[in-house]
Description:
two-stranded antiparallel sheet
Amino acid sequence: MVTCRKYIAPLVFCAQLASSFFDTALQMVVKERCANATDSDGQQKAITNFNMTYNMIAKFMPFLPAILLAKVGDRGYRKVPIVVPLVGYFLSRGLLLLDVAFDWPLQVLYAVPVIHGLCGGFASYWAGVMALVSVSSGEEERAVSIMMTELVYGIAGFIGSLASGHLFALYTVNLKQGVILSGSSVVLYLLCLLYAATFLRVGSPAVLGDRLERRESFGIINHEARDKINIALLFVSGILYDIAVAGGMEMLAAYVLKEPLNWGATLVGYGNAAGSLLFITSFLGVKMFTRLSLRDESMIMVGMVSFATGIYFMAFVTTTPMYFLARSVTLFALIPMPTIRSLLSKQVRGTSYGITFVTLQLSFKLASLATTPIYTKIYQATLDTFPGFVFILSSIFTVLSIIPISIVGCRSSRHNGYERIQGN
């Protein structure tokens, strides 16, 4: 199954490149359309209100489609949860291109998360990718394999973010600013869709099922209360950490557009690139900690401490150099999520990878349906006093997320690994 991992990398790279272009284009379009607000605070409230509604739609819409696609994937059709969301991405990104080209109202862009959500959205796409990587790797190498996929994702995001600010500024007499950037995103998603539909190799359902059965016949995991508790604790830790990261990053997207930073398209691209660079540093961290024989639970906690420290310092950022310094502190911040997925995959059978990963993704979205408006309202309420308070809130949530994963580490150490019944 090495071929699965080999052929998924180009798709992940191209899709994230397209996503980086879209993210910068959307961020700058929203800023420009909200520029008519009476003052800086008014503009920030208009931006954050749009982002809140947009993000809540994006989190709510994929629930049923993602679950259905995950079930299809677990029956052996691993390409389906990947290809269908790519159709949604292609169509929805095309809507942004039309909005920029024809100056449609900003509210039209609320249809973007509706379209790609009905096709499963990121929840289905990324769960499908993770399931494919997990099913094609052994337990010992799974954390590194998943992190390798995250690395490809991060490198693409880094390159795309660096280029996106410059591409946004390009325009001609006949093309408006932002058309080239959003058009490039649409073209790249079309290439991804064609690649996934025609060249991506995952094996037939019968072959995949046979390989999973043979792999699991070597040792049957003793699934009693201990494993179920571990799964619950991993979900709680992942949800708390996602609340911290997603909430902080959503507000950071608006924070950098206001005084004293007041970033333009180029610096927005550089800021997004700094975030993508964390995929590289986190991957190197996983490789280093693995060689030092650090347990998965310990690696997760190192990543969480890294993010908690960096996002705390972000609360006091007033200059661009300070921003990038705070970002550098979070260099291991992306270790927790792929490692949590790796630990989860070791608690369930291969035929349940898809539904397990999509349930994890959807639990993130369900939690954020409540936390996104809370973060937004807190940020708006503290704009005049301490706008960085939401980042301290993220740091607190991160510290809380360390507690469940530390319990998992203690339980795993006490039981000294899984009990296995040897097969023939």
